[in-house]
């Protein structure tokens, strides 16, 4: 057993993951918990505290904590820092950052590139290794998040309510598919009240709406024109933001992706077409990116052998 280790945490809106890694890259421990985004998870602090208290089998030398909603420039993030430091103590060197930053580090193995992340929310993160990291989008569901799972779900439901208002026959088929996916009545005389009640009873409406993106993707794969149209619009937003990042940096960095929206073949193909190039396959997940940054923070040598060992350990996650 090693006498020191590093910790990496990837805290998103849906799930929080943590791994402890040895100096040779071996994964010593891993844990999963619920979401820890303080913007929409009332119990985020308890979730994060319990996870951190449970994860450390050996003394930690350094930790990288990537959390949704974190920014060192925002006063609201000080509470996130306090929660982490209260648990890990003063002897651990800690780097706090956003979850998308470690996702970009992982995707490009700490090299330059642009990550398009689209899950419940959406954000573009660009790193050229010469300037401070660049964020495009990531404004949250009230101000933006175009191309995200939430945006896709809202677009699908928008078509449903448009049909319920107008009763135009062209919208009936798609509305029926979405209503069935929600286990709601298809009859327009009953569907409206049922849909309003569905909204009322959701514990986390944003996540429930974002979950519809999977159904839209499935329908697109089956050739549904309305679903394809929604996903191609989502892809247009994401591709445009990647292009914005390139323009601001003045260089055509490679792009990669992360998040459930990019499980859609329609989205991947449309973004690829719009950018004129295929994405780089992500080399590691966000938790891998956090581990790389924590290892460097600890002063460890992060070479090919270390990364291979880490990849093997994370493949079981």
From TrEMBL:
For this protein, the record's Gene3D superfamilies field holds: 3.30.420.40
Instruction: Please give one Gene Ontology molecular function term for this protein.
Output: kinase activity
Matching InterPro entries: ATPase_BadF (IPR002731), ATPase_NBD (IPR043129), Euk-type_GlcNAc_Kinase (IPR052519)
Q: Which Pfam families match?
A: BcrAD_BadFG (PF01869)
Q: Does the keyword Kinase apply?
A: yes
Among SUPFAM superfamilies, the record links this protein to:
Actin-like ATPase domain (SSF53067)
Q: Which keywords does this Swiss-Prot/TrEMBL entry list?
A: Kinase, Transferase
* Residues of the ATPase BadF/BadG/BcrA/BcrD type domain: 9-280
Alphabetized PANTHER family for the sequence = N-ACETYL-D-GLUCOSAMINE KINASE
Q: What is this protein called?
A: N-acetylglucosamine kinase
Q: What is the lineage of its organism?
A: Bacteria, Pseudomonadati, Pseudomonadota, Alphaproteobacteria, Acetobacterales
